[in-house]
User: Which sequence fits this backbone?
């Protein structure tokens, strides 16, 4: 108190400015310099990674093609009751005619057809065919009959219902499809049994990823333990054995598994030769779940071993010796002293393997057959083959959310501070 | 100072080279492997000899062509000039406005007898954006040593586990498999697509496929079935006829061809929409050369796919290295035409998404 009384106003720096101000300025300069240093990486990641992902995710709800191609029709359908069981009146057909005249010139009608065909089978050819005839139609007040003559689909209220339900510039259609539901005339409904696949695939992806993670841990833990406890010279040699497959092309390793596991393959041939398996009862180890689990466990094993190893290296061997000298058996010393200290490595390895495997694509595609494929195989199919990018984006969003939720759960239960990469 | 001069010189040189490259390079996208090689021999090489200064770059990403063309169009930078796609993809590219419409009679060469290209290609011009090149078929090959004394004569052998036990391979998609299932379940050829358009018809096809489901290896790459046949993993399997020709005639494997029930499909060229005038002109110039009667017949020297022009068929000669007569190995040779289907483009454009969802659900469960 007494010291403070002598000071009038803020403390000044050497140049006469308030110290607080010049300190803040110096810090700001430092921050700017730091920001400038990371700017290239930041911009690179934003432009090549974050922005495309955001754009792709946005496609899961994007639906502007319908209102943009059929603006007048969408408006004319506002008063029409979807559940009336009758097609709309002549004014809707007149609006459709005007819209299609514009759309055909821009060749937008077939694009619209592909979009709406995802919701109702047959609209693609309906619009393609109508597009060929629309210029020959006459605005004589009876367009409804002319449209119905070109394709009977226009007399079907179901067609109009689909147009109306998906006329917004955003849609829930893709997300509903991704959870095996759809937007029918009576609201959201489950798809028929023979079309429900995505939830099943999500479950299978999670299940197989867990199995792969656990088998990686079971195989990887003893290997990492051995690597960490052996003398440096021996463990270095063994380390190369772990890393060698890691450096080999993924496709080569996957194809090698094909050669090994197929019914006329090396393993089956050996078993038949030894007499363990009858020639007509060869084991099916590939093109099914077993194949996926074996091949992916092998491929992801280094991601488990390396973090485990680097954590185990830091556990002082003297702890185990101390435990034993205090009377613990080998097992107790391991389980009560060594194992708890290796848990951060288990956490890191498991997260790595699990998250990598949940999004894995190429290995399940090659060795998974029908029972060992993942949700990512369907996403890839919709991106490159069916071109239903909206559905692919919706599936991707769900997969991303599932991973984030699991990560959050993991953080709650194990704690992310308990994860160490070394 | 010296460094700066060096850099400036480098920049000038690279700009000049980029300019020169733009004037000459033409990127042609195709499927790779033996197929691209046949195009290289029959089309690209003679074209480059005749047009000095044009350099054809072969890109092998035809399998993802539709997705990539869409991405390129969205990015506003289409780097491909001519793209080889199957007809169903050409229809989709045309629908999406990603391929340009081609007036075949003004762009393509007439037949030697003077009849216009549109007549020469005939019904194979399935969409205005598409110039057909070959007719190929998806058909079955079987191991001659695994079928006993009664080799299969009919496509329904695939569903006959009693006489032909063992694994079989089918493509991991509904197209063709649904047709074969109905065909072998007593549906008349002419009614197949009417039946398949109904829920009951689809259920009927799945029920037929159910009878062999446990014995099927599903393939997704054209090379899978030949490899499975060569390894003796399967007794019978579907694939493209050209792959089987190679397996039988070039690799001399104990495999024979079952032409019965083959499903024809077309493969050909599209030109991406929105190319610059100069690139468009060059692409069409190339197409005029590469799809004339003689060139299409030449391709059959290297691979067993049938030329899409009617006027090319009589010109098909011997295989360039094996020396065998190629005519009987063409899917559209009269001897092989007993029981065939042409891929129904209109039907599958509509039903592809719907039936595929059901097919995948059926597969997974």
Assistant:
């Amino acid at each position: 108190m007494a010291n403070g009384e002598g000071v009038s106003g803020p403390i000044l720096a050497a140049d006469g400015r308030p110290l607080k101000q010049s300190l803040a300025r110096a810090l700001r300069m430092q921050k700017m310099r730091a920001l400038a240093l990371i700017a290239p990486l930041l911009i690179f990641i934003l432009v090549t990674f974050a922005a495309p992902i955001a754009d792709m995710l946005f496609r899961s709800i994007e639906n502007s093609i319908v209102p943009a191609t059929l603006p007048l029709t969408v408006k004319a359908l506002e008063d029409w009751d979807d559940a009336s069981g009758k097609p709309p009146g002549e004014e809707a057909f007149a609006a459709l005619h005007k819209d299609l005249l514009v759309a055909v010139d821009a060749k937008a009608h077939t694009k619209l057809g592909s979009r709406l065909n995802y919701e109702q089978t047959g609209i693609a050819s309906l619009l393609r065919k109508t597009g060929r005839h629309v210029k020959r139609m006459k605005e004589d007040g009876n367009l409804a009959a002319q449209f119905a003559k070109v394709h009977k689909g226009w007399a079907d209220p179901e067609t109009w219902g689909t147009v109306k339900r998906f006329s917004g510039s955003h849609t829930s259609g893709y997300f509903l499809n991704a959870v095996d539901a759809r937007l029918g005339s009576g609201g959201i409904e489950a798809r028929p049994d023979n079309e429900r696949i995505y939830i099943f695939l999500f479950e299978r992806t999670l299940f197989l990823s867990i199995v792969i993670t656990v088998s990686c841990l079971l195989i990887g833990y003893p290997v990492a333990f051995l690597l960490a406890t052996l003398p440096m010279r021996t463990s270095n040699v063994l380390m190369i054995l772990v890393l060698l497959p890691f450096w080999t092309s993924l496709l080569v390793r996957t194809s090698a598994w094909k050669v090994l596991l197929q019914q006329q393959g090396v393993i089956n041939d050996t078993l038949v030769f030894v007499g363990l398996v009858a020639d007509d009862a060869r084991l099916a180890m590939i093109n099914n779940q077993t194949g996926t689990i074996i091949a992916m466990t092998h491929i992801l094993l280094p991601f488990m071993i390396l973090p485990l190893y680097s954590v185990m290296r830091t556990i002082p061997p003297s702890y185990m010796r101390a435990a034993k000298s205090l009377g613990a058996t080998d097992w107790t010393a391991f389980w009560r002293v060594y194992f708890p200290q290796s848990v951060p490595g288990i956490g890191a390895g498991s997260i790595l393997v699990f998250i990598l495997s949940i999004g894995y694509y190429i290995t399940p595609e090659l060795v998974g057959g029908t029972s060992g494929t993942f949700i990512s195989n369907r996403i890839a199919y919709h991106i490159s083959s069916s071109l239903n990018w909206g559905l692919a984006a919706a599936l991707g969003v769900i997969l991303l959310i599932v991973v984030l939720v699991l990560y959050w759960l993991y953080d709650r239960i194990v704690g992310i501070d308990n994860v160490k990469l070394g | 100072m010296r460094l700066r001069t060096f850099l400036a010189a480098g920049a000038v040189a690279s700009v000049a080279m980029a300019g020169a490259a733009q004037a000459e390079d033409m990127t042609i996208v195709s499927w790779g492997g033996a197929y691209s090689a046949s195009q290289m021999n029959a089309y690209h090489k003679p074209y480059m000899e005749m047009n000095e200064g044009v350099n054809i770059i072969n890109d092998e990403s035809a399998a993802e062509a539709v997705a990539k063309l869409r991405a390129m169009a969205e990015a506003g930078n289409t780097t491909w000039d001519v793209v080889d796609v199957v007809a169903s993809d050409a229809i989709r590219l045309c629908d999406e406005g990603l391929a340009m419409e081609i007036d075949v009679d003004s762009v393509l060469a007439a037949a030697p007898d003077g009849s216009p290209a549109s007549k020469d290609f005939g019904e194979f011009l399935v969409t205005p954006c598409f110039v057909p090149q070959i007719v190929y078929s998806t058909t079955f090959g079987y191991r001659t040593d695994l079928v006993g004394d009664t080799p299969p004569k009919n496509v329904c052998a695939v569903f006959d586990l009693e006489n032909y036990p063992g694994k079989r391979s089918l493509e991991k998609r509904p197209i063709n498999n649904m047709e074969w299932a109905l065909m072998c379940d007593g549906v008349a050829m002419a009614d197949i697509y009417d039946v398949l358009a109904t829920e009951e018809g689809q259920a009927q096809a799945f029920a037929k496929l159910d009878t062999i489901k446990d014995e099927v290896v599903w393939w997704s790459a054209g090379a899978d079935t030949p490899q499975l046949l060569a390894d003796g993993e399967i007794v019978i399997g579907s694939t493209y006829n050209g792959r089987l020709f190679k397996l039988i005639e070039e690799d001399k494997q104990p495999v024979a061809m079952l032409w019965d029930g083959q499903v024809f499909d077309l493969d050909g060229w599209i030109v991406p929409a929105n190319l610059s005038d100069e690139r468009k002109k060059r692409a069409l110039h190339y197409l005029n050369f590469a799809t004339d009667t003689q060139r299409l017949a030449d391709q059959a020297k290297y691979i067993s796919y049938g030329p899409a022009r009617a006027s090319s068929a009589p010109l098909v000669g011997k295989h360039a290295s094996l020396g065998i007569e190629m005519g009987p190995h063409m899917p559209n040779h009269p001897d092989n035409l007993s029981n065939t289907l042409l891929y129904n483009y209109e039907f599958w454009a509509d039903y592809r998404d719907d039936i595929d969802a059901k097919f995948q659900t059926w597969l997974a469960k």
Remarks:
- Chain A has 20 helices and two strands.
- Chain A has two domains: 65-172, 198-418.
- The mean pLDDT of chain A is 90.
- Chain A touches chain B at residues 106-108, 110-111, 113-114, 117-118, 121-125, 128, 194-197, 200-201, 204, 262-264, 287, 365, 369-371, 373, 378, 383-388 (CB under 8 Å).
